[in-house]
Amino acid sequence: MEPVPTEVVQQVAEYFSVLSEPMRLRLLNLLKDGEKCVQDLVEATSTSQANVSKHLKVMLQAGILTRRSEGTSAYYSVSDDLSFELCTLVCDRIATRIEEQAQHFRAFSLASKQ
Fold first, then answer.
1. Cα(first)–Cα(last) distance of the chain, in Å?
2. Are 77 and 66 a contacting pair, CB within 8 Å?
3. 25: buried, middle or exposed (CB in 10 Å: 19+, 13-18, 0-12)?
4. Residue 38 CA: distances (Å) to CA of 11, 71, 100
5. Domain 1-79 class?
6. CA 37, CA 31: separation in Å to the nearest integer?
7. Residue 90 neighbours by CB distance under 10 Å
8. Are the beta carbons of 27 and 45 closer than 8 angstroms?
9. How far apart are CA 60 and CA 3, in angstroms?
10. 58 CB contacts (<8 Å, ≥6 apart)?
11. SS3 letters for 41-99?
12. Domain-by-domain residue ranges, the chain?
């Protein structure tokens, strides 16, 4: 079995790093229903335009988003639905772990009452 080339591992790590930032996940969530202008995203996240633009640029460069201009406004939409699939897989896994932990806490709680 040949080792995975360093360049491939680096690109995969970079893709995951794009999704590792909470603000980027918030922006993706806001864009799941369709295209939004930067100002709408700024208002929805209650953060600065510079901060939103910075994160949008990272996701655009990673190929997750597309951008179009209309007058002085920039509109962003999701071009890579895989990000939603990954988030769903991760959220399902976290939910399963939380449910398992809750069962352990309930079992401990019941055991201590006896």
1. 55
2. yes
3. middle
4. 27, 13, 40
5. mainly alpha
6. 10
7. 12
8. yes
9. 30
10. 18, 21, 24
11. HHHHHCCCHHHHHHHHHHHHHCCCEEEEEECCEEEEEECCCHHHHHHHHHHHHHHHHHH
12. 1-79, 81-114
Contacts of 27 (CB under 8 A, 6+ apart): 41, 45, 52, 55, 56, 59
Q: Which residues contact 26 (CB under 8 A, 6 or more apart)?
A: 45
- Would the pLDDT of 109 be above 70? no
pLDDT digits (tens, 9 = 90+) for 54-108: 999 999 999 999 999 999 999 999 998 888 899 999 999 999 999 999 988 888 7
pTM: 0.82
* DSSP β-bridge partners for residue 77: 66
Give the tokens for residue 72. 């002085």
CA–CA separation, 1 vs 23, rounded Å? Answer: 39
